[in-house]
Fold these 4 entries.
Entry 1:
Amino acid sequence: MPIDLPPTARALAAHLHERLRERWQGLPDADTGTPTLAFHAAPVPDDLPGHRAELIVEASDLHALRRAMTSDADAVVIDFDDTFSPTRENVQAAYDALAWATATEKPLLVRTRALYATEPHLDFGGPGIAALCDLSAVLAARPERPPHLYIPKLETVAEAQFWHDALSLAEAYLNLPADTIRVCLQIETYAGLLNAAALLQAMHSRAYGLNAGRWDYVFSLVKHLGRTRTAPVPPRSQLTMDVPAMQAYAEHLVAVCRQHGAEAIGGTASLAPDPEHPQPALDAVRMDKEREAAQGFTSAWAGLPELVGAVRAGIAAQSKATPQSASLTAPLEGRCPGGAEGLTGHGDPSTLTETLTDLPTPTSIPLAELRDSISLALDVFAAWLGGRGVVVRHGRVEDTATAELARALVWQWVRVGAALDDGTALTPERYMNERRAVMPDNAGAARLLDHLVLSPDCPAYFPHEAQRLFPDLFPGPTSLQE
């Protein structure tokens, strides 16, 4: 059964698909951009206060949506991406909820699905382009005052230009002034970081900031390094923001923002506090956001309403010393590898790229880390296939991003035959034994993880692979983008 879209949303989606489908089929174009230095990002929208805590909420979780709208968050992010399982029921529920969710007076942002994703329950001369379907539903729900957008998983200038043109077409269709729809670009891939200034320039008339997506970025980095690296990459517990490669990621993002007057927005606080003893988790969140504030980030995300206060307190730690307006252009005092300009100006690109890719090499992979990575991926995949995009395990909120990282780590360790701390090596057979100890072969999540881990190359995104492996869960047009 196809998804039921309101007439305005369906007409807008049809218009966008007619104008853009052929171009979309050519993405991602592996271009790299060299921006001119003479551009300035769009100003931060007036309704987004400085040093704010934005609460991210899964688009089809109606209880969480209602709770978010009455929370003390400074803004709410309705998410169709990492926390979202795109079953037909969920997409329909999320689109239906937009009518009342967008009626809020609270500052509202929406993250659509990424450009790789398709929507098989809608047919516009082929399966719907999920990003355009989500965009049409969102804009039709509140055309007179469109929510701001987060643009996920950008990598190339061609993708940024596609998005800008799609938004311009939507504005013209809805009789909105040019650049009414304001956006923040998510820098959550390795290629996206290298192209950050060029991506910002491509959308600078409407893009007001860049957002750090830590786990998506590490996932992308593991995929990139997996092509050539012969040593194992560290487990997730060792990929902290104290690692020089991760510091370089954050500081380069901030450097690009400051060079072009954009806002730098930090990552998601995803600890799940113990209801009886919440303070340790809240203190950890506050300290992490204080670190981001010291690096130059002026806002950040909370993954749960309980974390909003800790995020706000941490991100505001530098506010008295550096107001937001000043922080958009304040120098980084030479901390960014290759200079504060990073890859955007006079810094040495080779220095930055060497630092970004110089992950430490562990002596061995702890067996406990391997087993946790396998279990995490299986837990999230099972939930996702069942219609839930988020799980809470071991005191953390886990979603698509962390599951992608977990499966990529296991893929890379298997590929290089990583040494385990029990004195053995991780072979495909050993992986299968460990996975079977957690879940049987016939389980959907197990089939998906086996496919991802044992592939010669690291598949790009698991939701795309899941649509191919489980067509019964995603019936509809089958000509998915290659």
Entry 2:
Amino acid sequence: MSKSNIESYPPMFRPSSADPTRQPDLNDSESSGAGISDLPLIDMMCLDIEKLDKACREWGIFRLENHGVPTVVLSQLQEHAKRIFKLSFEAKQSLVNSNCPIKYFWGTPALTSSGIALPRATNDALNMDWVEGLNVPFSQLKYDHHHHHNLLINDFSNGEQAKGLHEHTDSSILSILSEDQVGGLRFFKDEQWFKVKPNPTTLVVNLGDMMQVISDDEYKSVKHKVELNKEKERVSICYFVFPEENTLIHSSHFKPFTYNDFRAQVQLDLKTHGSKIGLVNFKLQHCQDHFA
């Protein structure tokens, strides 16, 4: 955490807001000994459909190369994001109640349909997600009546108290991630956590809950989280694709529901249990073994 830029952080993330005697040792975290995994590499210039299908079935996460987005554009996005996050907390917070479609959030990645953060399950800085971000709705892309698109730009604050982003699955169809070189992304496979090597020239794609539903459980919604570097902030830019909110989603393994239904259930989960339960709420009884 940069002391010279302390006013840019949410007040609860500033050193005086947390009890130093309760600072966790990140070196003893549950996944600090996780293995390092090379993700399946998908080349967009010579797409191997069988390899892509296998990555979706067995991993739920893969890396894209030759994706067509110029490296200079990704670098510029990262630099612009860093400049925005250096603004004062008050300047960023003013976006929440403004008419600007871009919304600022912190302490949780769980957002309402308008991009405003849901009430946090805890006010304890040591137990919340140490993340702040901007939600950018791409409303102009709604020419497709089956999907809508959002861009999240995240800044993962560093510090001794940092908890990162707790383990979760994305609610999207898929998520496309551009990250800097700091690293910290972890995913769960074969009953263990793996570290993802940062590579700013490639994009990481992970499948979300809606893809698992659409594919009748053939493809995985991958569990993942972010652990933080004590010395450096991590900036990521993630593009989410969702079903159109009121389109009915059919699956032989799940009850019919709309994305609005799913989001409402997740919000209820967070309020009632403090965490997302997700797809199990919609699973047909004869298919419950998949979640056992």
Entry 3:
Amino acid sequence: MRTKQETQHFSHHHALVPLEGEELNCYGCKTKIIEPFHGCISCDYFLHESCLKTPRFLRHPSHPQHSLTLIPTPTYSSRSFLCDACGCEGNSFSLSCAECDFDLDLYCAALPTALELREKHEHVVTLAFESPHSIICCDICGKNINPKSWIYYCESCDFGVHLVCAAQHKRESTKKNEKEKQKDTNVESSQRDETEEEKEDRERSGNEKQNKKAKAKDKNSKKKNGKEKKGKAAKVENFQRDDEPEEETAEDHGKSVSQEYQKMLMRDMENQLILQAMDNANDYIGYGSTKYYYY
């Protein structure tokens, strides 16, 4: 029983499953597979997604009289066919008209009807299914083009190129554009990274400045608080010193004693003078009234 992811293709008797991760050759177009694809591992049968989805019947402008049928294996006795577009031999998938012996490989059948070759020509070149001249040279490689093969052609400029040369130039141009876009993307990413780094540097620098300012402010605050504490302590000390009695030195003590002794002598002298004055008064009044006072 097939799963939902399995696909049964008319070209193979086993169901094909989606695969990826390996570089293999596609059985339908004989080119390298570099993207997810379908295949049968037991038979080594692999198909591109585009080849797997190629329609069984196709109306193509190069052969408008009949429909082309998808043939997985050439039906000619040689088991090969010649592509009427590029003249190359093929032995895989083809879109064929059995009535006219007309065959196209899948690559040529999918070619665009118009193409821009900006680095080679200023005008859009169109797909011509027959050569406009019996002899014409490719304006890219310089070699003659088979008059029975298709070409990309600009009628106004008589500019013609091989299908292969046009495709190769288109691939190279596409790769170049992709590289330029990738380069621009890398430059933008680098500039964005530099801008982010500059922003981080500015933020880091700003934070460092703020930290320095905060530290300086804290340091000044501590200094100020220290000075205030010292000032308060000095005031308290001075206040306590003012309240405390000054210690008396030996010299000051001697002076104090001398001053007290002089005061005592002065009081004695004053008492003696008072007594003398009283004696003088008794001498004048009479001795019997005199009272003696001793100190």
Entry 4:
Amino acid sequence: MLVVSTLIIFSCQILIFKTQPEWVSIPGLGPGRIHNQESTTDVPPSSRGIPLIGETIQFMAAINYSSKGFYDFVQTRRLRYGNCFKTNIFGETHVFFSSIETAKVILRNDAGKFTKRYLSSIAQLVGDQSLLCASSPDHHKLIRGRLNNLFTTKSLSLFIKQFDELIISTLGGWEHHRGGTVVVLKEALKITFKAMCKMLMSLESGEEVEMMEKDVAEVCKAMLAFPLKLPWTRFYKGLQARKRIMETLEKIITLRRRGLEGCNEDFLQYLVQEDNRGFGDETLKLTDTEIKDNILTMIIAGQDTTASAITWMVKYLGENPEILDAVEREQQKLAEKTSTRTSFNLTLQDLNDMPYASKVVKESLRMASVVAWFPRLVLQDCEIEGYKIKKGWNVNIVAKSIHFDPMVYNDPNKFNPSRFDEHDSKPYSFLAFGMGERTCLGLNMAKAMMLVFLHRLITTYKWKVVDSDSSIEKRAMFSRLKSGCPIHVTRLPSPKDVKSA
């Protein structure tokens, strides 16, 4: 079986990589043993694995079989080598770092020595014109500048109202699900997908939306799949799903450009109108391919990562009743205030009046570390932590290792929102949304979605976590609970009901 796997991987290297990778002949695969550890003091410590393949098998095994996912691969080597180690994955050299000092150097990128780069499989699935894959500083600046409009205060305020209405209508039926038991991840994925489609393209229902939801799920499943383009593989199925999504988006964009789809006030319409108005410089326009790739990117980022974070938040609160009680007191007080208003919907100001819930969100993001690492490509030879790092290597900041470093966070395995009472937290110690020039554009939107969900859940139901298993869903790009966090809900009386009683 190992021989077959090796042959498949070797074949894949030839298909994927155009440059011949560096390698040394090192026998053995055991992740618990050191094989030919490099003794040169000016290069990071490493075990390169076997020729061409390196430690790809161990990396994929962690993703496919470990309850901790990708982090298991990193943590095993971190315990062996320390905060910095070098390895070979998919035929390329990767160096992993787990210190806030190095995170600052790489993510701030003041000297311009690094650029963003994801694994080949991810780039092929989201598209090479995606903001995630824009390696050129000018290209990245162009796309980021055009996408910024989605995250203005005005846009965020409108989105909060829409998302709140969606949450209210969805949560209303939870008590009737299988005797009051719902799987949070499953429901959160539906809610966040609908929210993103409405905001981006004014799509709310119909066969087209249902098909796109299934296809986006296929793309997400394929992100860390081995990049073999064979019909039965997850990667091939993901590529086919991407193709269908692109075709759907192409139809919508064509109709919008021809003015045949009515008057829509959404993000896609903004992009199309800006291009149709015309810029003096054609290079400032986004091509249809750039628009499509970034619409898909925003759907995935807004749906998958946020739904995963919401699920972890519900789990952590369910396991910490004292913290849940504190959040309930804050949210019930806010609910009483909003119940007297003409408009019942939450506003941006309401979210600003949730100081403790905001700390709960931040602590949930720290512990969940939904995006576990941030990859960069080295553009020129440099030195980091006393080690020589070569041009063409991949450097990775392991956010989860930093989030659970006892030198950074006291008692890091404890869910403690009050740790953020202090305002002098160490720079680059909280990396849920990255840092530096490529900080996640949607960080305020993600926080808003989590706060709205939390408020409506707490003021609508009492709940109890049914399955406390913390195992990570296998093969997932983002850290998702394998169980999905099933909870049993019991409806609460509304503030108006309490007053009239």
